[in-house]
Amino acid sequence: MTDSDTITQSPISNPSASTASANSTAAPVKKHTASFALLWLFVVLIIAAVCFGAIFVSKQSERQQLIIDSLRTQVEQQAQAMETRQQLLEDNLDKEFVEQQATIQANMNNLAEQVDSSNARLLSLSSVNRDDWKLQEAQYLLRLADQRILLEKDSQNALALALSADDVLRDIDQADLVGVRKLLVEEIAVLKLAGVIDREGIYLRLSALSNQIDAIPFIEPLGTQEDVLEEDVVPVDETFKQKLTRNFYSLLHKLGSYVRVRDHGKTINAVLPPAEQKYLQQNLRLMLEQAQVALLRNEENIYLESLVKAQNWINQYYSLNEKATAVLQELEALQQEEIAPELTSFSNSTAALVEYIAKREKMAAARRGVR
């Protein structure tokens, strides 16, 4: 029997077998359907994932595009700002260059003018002769003399400087210098009449007086112990006449201790105690030192006031013996000394000499053709 016959007859001959065959056939069909459904689900998921990925990629692309556009815009703005800044920098550099060039040109012009002036000065100096140098020397000496008179009140040095200037002008031997020398000689004559002040000698005399202050005695009080005589020894065989004579002389001595005559020519103040005597001696020294300072500073009023005050104190509080009289006479002699005489300056002769030098230089420049 063939296989076809077997297959054809199997449902009719065995129903149970056909049922089993149908069940076995349905099971693969169900498995195939489930596999197909899973396949479609997988495909759908893949498609969804692809679509989602495409959408995500599209959005990322758009975002990146926006970022790129923003960066491009920023780059363009920065490039424009840099270009503007570069333009401003170039403009500033050009402006500074122009200003520096103008400054350099001005400096060069000034240097050129200075060079021309220096050349003219060199030309003028090259033609300076011995007389011009002597004129400058005389002018310098007169200015020094003026300085000695105005600042130091030193007539002796000023006179020596003025005489030296006159000797220099005499050696030049120019006729047009007669007017300058005439003024200078007149000022020298006035300065000679003022005399020379012996400041060192007066200063030393004041120092010597200051050293003699302690040697002058003060007015002594009445009735001191030195004036009281010791009581005479009474002899045993003294007679009445001797006793009367002794008592008479004792009475006279006691009266003499209470009455004392001094010829001061003025009212005597109270006698100073020892402490105030030391204070007065110190004040007298200070007055004499103040007179010395005033002497060096040419302050005549302070000098005289100091000496007069010291003289009054000696007359008022000191005993007018030989030492005090000698000190008072020395103070009186110092008051007669002239410490600040009127000294003439050399301004007129100096001005005339300066005018003469300027006129001489102008004439020399005109001869050289230099303005």
Q: Helices and strands in order, then pairings?
A:
Blueprint: H1 3-13, H2 15-126, H3 130-152, H4 155-172, H5 178-194, H6 199-211, H7 240-258, H8 274-296, H9 300-317, H10 322-335, H11 347-368
Largest sheet: none
Strand content: under 5%
Order of helices and strands: HHHHHHHHHHH
Low-confidence stretches: 1-21, 222-230
Q: What would you say this structure looks like, in words?
A:
With 371 residues, the chain is mostly helical. It is 78% helix and 0% strand. It has eleven helices and no strands. Helix 1 packs across helix 2, helix 4 packs antiparallel against helix 5 (178-194) and helix 9 (300-317) packs antiparallel against helix 10. It starts with a helix and ends with a helix. The model is unreliable at 1-21 and 222-230 (pLDDT under 50).
Keywords:
371 residues, elongated, 0% strand
